[in-house]
Amino acid sequence: MPYVNLKITREGATAAKKAELIAGVTDLLVRVLNKSPATTFVVIDEVETEDWGVGGLPVLDYRARLAGPTTG
Amino acid sequence: MPYVNLKITREGATAAKKAELIAGVTDLLVRVLNKSPATTFVVIDEVETEDWGVGGLPVLDYRARLAGPTTG
Amino acid sequence: MPYVNLKITREGATAAKKAELIAGVTDLLVRVLNKSPATTFVVIDEVETEDWGVGGLPVLDYRARLAGPTTG
Amino acid sequence: MPYVNLKITREGATAAKKAELIAGVTDLLVRVLNKSPATTFVVIDEVETEDWGVGGLPVLDYRARLAGPTTG
Amino acid sequence: MPYVNLKITREGATAAKKAELIAGVTDLLVRVLNKSPATTFVVIDEVETEDWGVGGLPVLDYRARLAGPTTG
Amino acid sequence: MPYVNLKITREGATAAKKAELIAGVTDLLVRVLNKSPATTFVVIDEVETEDWGVGGLPVLDYRARLAGPTTG
User: With 80 as the cut, is the pLDDT of residue A70 above it?
Assistant: First the structure.
């Protein structure tokens, strides 16, 4: 009876994409560990980009820094 | 000093119902483990139904499948 | 189909006490929100006291500070 | 940059099985949401069976109840 | 490669304050444990006050009780 | 009344290092958001390296791959 929590940045994942994630994670647990789908919970959290940090920066700032300056 | 996280699908739990959950979980920890209410935190997360999967499906689809087809 | 995570310091909670917590939280969700026990998961985490901080201190140091010095 | 937490009961999942879970979840996020593997974290928690409740019971008791009494 | 989850009540933390938290936690992990910023994730959850309990009460009720009655 | 969860790989963090993390995170929340230390919880989880995945691999394999083959 697994419990899976998926956290992703909120950037437009559709309900159809989320359904694919739910199906895919559940299938994986069935295949690898022989778990029952009926007792496999998957909870998806979409996190605002200003609430997700990496490299010491909010994620959009981090990506901008990686992309580098557009110097003239 | 317990920390409790309650995740439920977002389906209209009122503030009053949530207050009952907070009181009930706290009382339980006091009664069973002699914890202090002042250092017992309870955090409730309401999860959109499209973000909650069970049986490999988003929960509303799963419930519909359990309820069965209305065949003609 | 709720998911509940209870975090407590590891200080000797027995399996019987944990079973009481599991039963109590589940009953609460049935009573307050009419949830089904069969799809209510409860996961208990026991956390080492050196891994639990409050008041800026590991919890045992914090309790000792609250208890105060035994000055002579 | 997703973060995935997989909670399963501690019942002998090998390091090889865990590696399959890590690979499978990461592939899924790449395929469905075009995420980068290098910024996809997967954390697996194995939970003692006495710490996992379902149906208001510790999971081994719950399974035993579902299996039914072996009456004579 | 640490993962940090900060839960706070939703009471007006600005994006700038959140960026300070992200920078501060990341710096701390670099300084204390020599972790790499590029693989340090920080996720902030803002929790509605009606969803946060302490002392057996939703947090605003708890604070009001601590502040005491304004008796006449 | 924040709640902070720090997840790190289990690689020998001492109790003294953990105490530094607890103090540092708490100070940060006091400084940035004016939170009270007495109601700031910090929970540290040390995760076995075989339970932590990144880049689709258990973390030690991932680091080895990044370090590259020592070909002759």
Answer: no
